[in-house]
Amino acid sequence: MRRTRVLPLAALLLCTPALAGAVPATASPQARPAGPLRILLTNDDGYDAPGIRTMFQRLTAAGHDVTIVAPLTNQSGTGTKMMSATTVTVKHPEPLVWAVGGTPGDSVLFGLSEVFADKAPDLVISGTNFGPNAAVLATHSGTVGGAVAALEQGVPAIAVSTGGLSAPVLEPTLNAMRSTSDFMVKLIERLESRAKSGRLLPEGVGLNVNHPVVGTDGTGTPRGSSVTTQDPQPILQADFTDSGDGTWKVNVNVALQPAEKGGDVEALSADNVSITPIAPNWNAGQADFSRTAALLTGLRP
Predict the structure, then answer these.
(1) In Å, what is the CA distance from 268 to each residue of 12, 161, 227, 278?
(2) Domain ranges of the chain
(3) In whole numbers, what is the pLDDT of the chain averaged over residues?
């Protein structure tokens, strides 16, 4: 699915030497006034998590108009879940901050419907997440789920995570979040420069950005950035042990496989930022669709 959508876009992105892998907008223009962007900032770690606060500070310092609309509590791993309750608790603990008692998707929907009711934001950013959302982790990520919720509503969106391919370590990851946020400022500048007054990204296309933790303390600089596909490997492997009382103990281990060429795992392994174009649907690419259709030709109930 993603490779079919990625290749034409990637060809354009790789022509940007100052920020290899940053994404220009190529869709038909949608009028947007010049000046700072209006950004809805969400995440899945909670509205007061270090990653979202660092991102808020960096984006605000860069001149953007940023409003946090994020989960009240940690919602890691909730994927695209949303609208699963008939009521939702919403708090407004400080100016420019809304805390929603639901998933990242719930937060984005509330933000678009209520906080940005008069006019949709120019961009939704989800993150930066604590730990990576590469390979199949992205499929189940609440961080990515927040971006998907925005894309489904026609709003450009970027999911962003900080972490390598091993279990995240607190201090190095927190340090790398500053570098991640600085990179996002540069990425947004590139999108703005290519978009002029149009859309920041092609319609229906978002980005899943994974920033590595470089150096033992996380203060190192990535070697570069790459436009990637989503590696199909699961990364995490579950092991179940019968406790003998009707319950099973679950252990989760990192089980890396050889990286797919051009994928996000390969990029992170080389200390590069991976930028994966994503779409808010489950459609297969045209080649896979055609092969599958051939298998099913003539099937009748």
Answers:
(1) 21, 11, 11, 17
(2) 2-232+261-288
(3) 89
